[in-house]
Give the backbone structure.
Amino acid sequence: MFISEFKIRVRYSETDQMSYVYYGNYAQYYEVGRVEALRSIGTSYKALEDSAIMMPVVQMNTTFKKPARYDDILCIVTKIKKKPDVKMEFFYEIYCNDILINTAETILVFVDKKTMKPCHCPQWFSDLFLEFNLLS
Amino acid sequence: MFISEFKIRVRYSETDQMSYVYYGNYAQYYEVGRVEALRSIGTSYKALEDSAIMMPVVQMNTTFKKPARYDDILCIVTKIKKKPDVKMEFFYEIYCNDILINTAETILVFVDKKTMKPCHCPQWFSDLFLEFNLLS
Amino acid sequence: MFISEFKIRVRYSETDQMSYVYYGNYAQYYEVGRVEALRSIGTSYKALEDSAIMMPVVQMNTTFKKPARYDDILCIVTKIKKKPDVKMEFFYEIYCNDILINTAETILVFVDKKTMKPCHCPQWFSDLFLEFNLLS
Amino acid sequence: MFISEFKIRVRYSETDQMSYVYYGNYAQYYEVGRVEALRSIGTSYKALEDSAIMMPVVQMNTTFKKPARYDDILCIVTKIKKKPDVKMEFFYEIYCNDILINTAETILVFVDKKTMKPCHCPQWFSDLFLEFNLLS
């Protein structure tokens, strides 16, 4: 399993009148979590798009345990448990002051930008995960 | 089961560079869907908040089947299957040109704004659902 | 001068913890205002992009007179005072319950999507404004 | 004049289908710029709100010189030229790879959260600016 951590600070724009982070804005945090996870293994989502592959999200499940508030520093823990193939799963835990406030998982698929059809992930991308103890 | 429909048009701001609606923005569409569902049964989420009750989302599961694009008119079908008690579930189907592009469900809880503790939904709110053939 | 009106309802996602619409979200309202203004004269911004022209915003000035709040219905009045050439100006007034709460202006330029260089607006687009009493 | 710098990375969610940062999202960057400017002089916007003062934006002027793109690292330079009184002005320059891509200014006012009326900025807040060489 590969684990990456990244910290972000809640922006005022991300709150709503409940004084909580709006529930739809967590998707941005997951995006930052997985983008920085990819960066920490030596690539980037931008590099993937530049090579004419894009990764739309096809599934997202999220559980809101505690609210996040303005100016909070959130620690986004992103986990990759399996080597990517035609899809890639990411698991997220968000902590605020060491308290788990949110868990989520997303499934993304690989799409060839030229044909706009689903495809297998590029070999160079898949190889990046060889050095981590991934189960499959 | 109570079913409500509401149409919205995709804004440019809601797209991302994939030329799709950003996956995090669907949460706004669900919000509009359930808010308009409540309005169609004679109340509003605003009325609920004005009575010192708020409804944070505690769970969201969403499946992205097809992309939505700029200027598309989306039909948000919102379903309520059970009378609210301490929580309330909403089910969503989003159609674009009569094609189902997204399904989701959200669970919201009732919170007393004075104590900031979970509470049962107000009687007047629960009573609004009596006239619909709800199972429980 | 060409004047167009369009109504939108404030979403929960658009508020912040001040219980006002977040100041950055008005840009979306202006976008909706000008897009619907174009639609009302028989074209659409989408048609323009489909013809390989895009219109980035180069200038925005906005004055926030009164706050907008959750569930408010806002009337966006969009004015076009001059025929577009290499740029196009839009003026906005936003009313809530007939009270003027916001004024703004934006300047957009025409960009050829193939060359990514500024260009003159297409003749067919410019011609749409002939029938309105525009000063220049 | 007091000058503060802060770097942020453009999120995918902040782009639109033009592959540029959506023009409305710069307001978030200005917010981050001024919030971090306040933090660098030893206070925070959160502290101000906790003391029952809030600062809505009443004016924003912004000039978009060059686009910002996904994954770009932006340097937000925030300038404060005058000591706050009943209002406070911030000036922004955003650089991408040392190229100036955006300039803006915002005017914010102080509002007493209890009375919801405009007020003078708190003395403790104003005093923070004494040590900087501010012109007035």
